[in-house]
Amino acid sequence: MRTLVPFDALTPKSRLEPVLSADEREGFARRMLEDVLAAVGGAGGDPLVVATAPVECDAPTVVDDRPLSVAVNDRLDAGTAVVMADLALATPRTLRAFFAASGDVVIAPGLGGGTNALVVRDASFRTDYYGTSYLDHLRIAHERGLSVREVDAARLAVDVDEPRDLADVLLRGEGESAAWLRERGVRLRDSNGRGRATRSRTE
Question: Nearest-CA neighbor of 78 among 122, 46, 141, 126?
Fold first, then answer.
């Protein structure tokens, strides 16, 4: 399945600043991108990275610095998937099941109301990634009379944006992203029964 993977190559993961430096945020974003590309490829997907600036990776890449919805919609045809580049928990098995789910539009919602992955089988569907895009995409599909399948998968629900999200990467990440964090001293600590990512380093 043709799979668009949007990637911010300019200022990636700025909200991780309390834990990672600018160079580290760029490096971590690249590791997550590679993990996502490996998962997409392992699931039988044919990835195309839509990046805001040139980036070297293990997939064809096109540079498009326009707003996300515009960049995606210009490439969105029937039978296209969209998988975000920060789904560090995604695995081939999870994406294989996601790609195979029935529906004109298949949605994997993020925990905060975003849309972490889509499968679009009707070319009339257009994305809108502003605000709570999950609700917007349900509305757009309804307005066009399209059937919707929601896939409630934990490994697709976590997009890594905030320091608290790093705990999930350390807990369940199976790719290079988790190893990269551990190499830089990011560790999982128990905090009142909840996992929390902390870092000990000498500046």
Answer: 122
Structure-token pair, residue 171: 């807990």
Give the residue from 112, 105, 78, 82 showing the smallest Cα distance to 95: 82
Q: Give the model's pLDDT for residue 193.
A: 64
- Residue 201, pLDDT score: 55
Q: How many residues does the chain have?
A: 203
**Does pTM top 0.85 for this prediction?**
yes
The pLDDT of 142-171, averaged and rounded, is 95
Residues 6+ apart with CB under 8 A from 60: 47, 48, 49
CA atoms within 13 A on the CB side of 181: 26
Hey, what domains does the chain have and what are their CATH numbers? 2-161 (3.90.550.10)
